[in-house]
Amino acid sequence: MITLNQLNSLSEKEAFKQLEQCCVSIKWVTGMVKSRPFSSEQDLVDKAASIWFNDCDVKDFKEAFTGHPKIGNVESLKEKYAHTATWAGNEQAKVEEANIKTIEALAKANQQYEDKFGYIFIVSASGKSAEEMLAIVNSRLHHQVEDEIFVAMNEQHKITVIRLAKLIDELPEKTNLSSHITTHALDTSLGIPAKHMVITLKGLQDNQWKPISVGITNNDGRILDVLPPARFLIPGIYTMVFNTLEYYKKNNQKGFYPEVTVQFEVTDKNHYHVPLVINPFGYSTYRGS
Q1: Which CATH number describes the domain made up of 181-285?
Q2: 4-174 is classed in which CATH architecture?
Q3: Are strands 192-193 and 181-187 parallel, antiparallel or unpaired?
Q4: Residue 233 confidence (pLDDT) above 60
Q5: pTM (two decimals)
């Protein structure tokens, strides 16, 4: 771990080496090195997002993906990117807790994903179990090839910021790492949070709904990282799709609505919280905080 001042003072070669631990896209790392000196930790986070989302393209996204092992296969990364392997292993720690049936299903889904899209399944794995990642990959397998790359690149940047927080001392304490969009699902039929529900954020493009992010609710029924830090949606109409069908199946319930779609309007960079209150035969939503 180094301080921001130390990063600013490093030679270009040493700064490149440090930042490459966070993302192996040459364009992103080069852009970050040239953006020094960063005036603050927040400036670093903002520049990291700006370079990734405004300057990088599909080729750069795919290059960045090569800096990750397949989920559950950290060994494949050790030789190629030895300096990122430890962080990658820690990020996937919960995979080791899964049973063999889940591991096998996850490995199969990962191969199906790679066969379809041409690159490995990228997901911000921190804190997620193998079962949760399996639900996410199975959902993303339904995406069109031209759409999925933009979901994957959002996940890539979530990982990049997590690694920046490991690299730069006090970065989490001195920056806003919250997501522009968050969500929360509550099950009033059980009186508990609706955990392990897959939710997809979509935006309109050429009059078609295109996926932006796919997440799964945690044990508190929340998804706090729908978008990476400093990634802001442009003003417009968006939709959250809650996969209630699979949620009810997991809870041995029969639900009337196979999915719930909530449309909402984004007008600025303020935080938007889009919660859902459900039971098998009804639901409601509101603008949360």
Answers
A1: 2.60.40.180
A2: Orthogonal Bundle (1.10)
A3: antiparallel
A4: yes
A5: 0.87
